[in-house]
Write a structure and sequence with these properties.
It is built from 12 helices and 4 strands; from the N terminus they run E-E-H-H-E-H-H-H-H-E-H-H-H-H-H-H. Strand 1 and strand 2 form a beta hairpin. The protein is mostly helical. The chain folds into 2 domains: 205 residues, Rhomboid-like fold; 42 residues.
């Protein structure tokens, strides 16, 4: 819709009739299926949320490491309206990111956006226990990746994608600061930073002077090797001297010394001087 396929790695995973099924479509289907299961279980008076949501204490002290990834697939019935908006944004913008960077890179980006916030909260949990459920920050990171790839694409009300990303990030941040939701704020900005850095490192993001300077600082500098200067002078072998003046001597024998040019006379004199120095 916004761009074209630029990666050789992009291809549909499967086909449903004439419609291609890519990784983004499968992720949307997985999230929707688990949301439906969550609603059914909630109506039955039970829930999988206590076993799947992120809980730093359960990870650190009970070894329930699966929570680092499963928290994003917990969708409560009370937030289904925003969940629908979230899935629409994932489907629209996620497919464009996948087309641009390819399937393998897209899967890597999704895993990073899934794991990075949980890793931050796990470290945070050493000092303060934290919990997390749902995937708004993860999929906002996908939108940030899209805005970094297509910063000048016009969206709603002809606002460019980069400004949309900045506006939404600002609103999101102010809301979390107002409620003192510091762990959620850390999750959001971890997702934003991870998405932006991933796209920039692949060379797909906008050209930024400060980013180029930063990459120049962290990239290893080429090692300099000192090469010994070779001595331009080498011993003049007698055979070399004779070989250099043989054509001149032939010319003298045929046409006389008066037939030599200025350069040939100079070359003959240099050869004679070399032979005299060698004889001393």
């Amino acid at each position: 819709m916004f761009g074209v396929t630029t990666s050789d790695d992009y291809r549909p995973v499967a086909w449903m009739g004439r419609y291609p099924v890519d990784v983004t479509t499968m992720l949307v289907g997985l999230h929707i299926a688990l949301a439906v299961v969550g609603c059914v279980l909630f109506a039955a008076g039970t829930s999988l949320s206590p076993y799947l949501q992120f809980d730093s204490a359960a990870i650190l002290y009970q070894g329930q490491v699966w929570r680092i990834a499963t928290y994003a697939f917990v969708h409560t019935p009370s937030a289904l309206l925003w969940f629908a908006v979230e899935m629409y944004m994932l489907f629209v913008f996620g497919r464009e990111v996948e087309r641009f960077i390819g399937q393998r890179a897209y899967i890597a980006l999704y895993i990073i956006l899934l794991i990075a916030p949980a890793a931050v909260l796990t470290v945070w949990g050493v000092w303060q226990p934290s919990a997390l459920a749902g995937s708004p920050a993860l999929h906002f990171g996908i939108f940030v990746a899209f805005a970094a790839i297509y910063p000048r694409v016009e969206l709603l009300l002809r606002i460019m994608a980069k400004w949309f990303a900045l506006i939404l990030a600002g609103i999101y941040t102010l809301q979390l600061i107002a409620y003192h939701a510091w762990t959620d704020l850390a999750v959001v900005w971890t997702s934003i930073a991870a998405a932006f850095v991933f796209v920039e490192l692949r060379g797909a993001g906008p050209e930024l002077v400060w980013w180029n300077k930063f990459k120049g600082l962290i990239q290893p500098r080429p090692k300099l090797h000192i090469v010994q200067k070779q001595n331009a002078q080498r011993p003049v072998e007698q055979d070399d001297v004779y070989a250099s003046v043989d054509p001149i001597l032939d010319k003298i024998s045929k046409s006389g010394i008066g037939s030599l040019t200025t350069n040939e006379r100079r070359q003959l004199d240099r050869a004679r001087n070399r032979l005299l120095k060698k004889a001393q």
